[in-house]
Amino acid sequence: MANPLPSDALSGKTALVTGSSRGIGADTVRYFADAGARVVINFRNKEARALKLADEIRGNGGTAITVGADLTDPASVRSMMAAVQDEFGGIDVLVLNASGGMESGMAADYAMLLNRDAQIDVLDAALPLLSPGSRVVFVTSHQAHFIRTTETMPEYEPVALSKRAGEDALRARIEELQASGIDFVVVSGDMIEGTITATLLERANPGAISARKDAAGRLYNVSEFAAEVAAAAVDPIPEDNTRLVGDTSDFA
């Protein structure tokens, strides 16, 4: 997938992408680095993958650091932001990509803790580093974005409800962000082939992904959707601060 950003689109800027040691987050970081950004690769427990990605970016002439943080732990989030400030001074692009809730063995409230509460904690911790002209990008799914009007698979419903709650909590901050010169945009996509979420859904509900693919006509893969996320960091803010990716005809 070609980089949607010009090679100098983010020259001199710093981008932090949560949950970026693999998947959509990792490819988003690659696009940012190729566009000249200094990138912060955040991971929870996949340090080896994060370090490998950072080495790849540096090998291509880019600038990257890795910072581990449990986003559900406010102290860990503050420590991450302190490390970013020490290294780069501030943040120009903050991508709220990390999410979860389908993992086994987690507490009943984990999805809400990560997909709503942690998103606000990360934003609050980042605010002192975000200057006028910076941008916050929140990554979600159509199944979550439209959950109030369109039912989703039962296995995904707790995640969808918690991600919509996170989106609503962030949207409530738009006026405050705009007053500080900070842009905000939501990027919503259908199920993405090749993601952990898709794998877990397919395991819980065999045939779910192929059925959704048949209904939509096609599903984006990881690199294609990451390209949309990367573009959202620089493109004009769309109507209602929402960038819808892929088919939405099945969503009201």
What attributes characterize this protein structure?
single chain; 252 residues; alpha/beta; Rossmann fold; 10 helices; 44% helix; 18% strand; globular; SDR family NAD(P)-dependent oxidoreductase; SDR; NAD(P)-bd_dom_sf; SDR_fam
Describe this structure in words.
The chain is 44% helix and 18% strand. The protein has 10 helices and 7 strands. It has helices at residues 23-34, 47-59, 74-88, 110-126, 142-145, 157-171, 174-179, 196-204, 208-216, 222-232; strands spanning 14-17, 38-43, 63-68, 91-96, 130-141, 183-189, 242-245. It is globular, with a radius of gyration of 17 Å. InterPro entries: NAD(P)-bd_dom_sf, SDR, SDR_fam.
CATH topology: Rossmann fold
Radius of gyration: 17 Å
> In the CATH classification, which architecture applies?
3-Layer(aba) Sandwich
Order of adjacent strands in the largest pleated sheet: 3-2-1-4-5-6-7
Helix content: 40-55%
How large is the count of helical segments? 10
Poorly predicted segments: none
Q: How many beta strands in the DSSP annotation?
A: 7
Family: Belongs to the short-chain dehydrogenases/reductases (SDR) family.
InterPro entries: NAD(P)-bd_dom_sf, SDR, SDR_fam
Protein name: SDR family NAD(P)-dependent oxidoreductase
Pfam families: adh_short
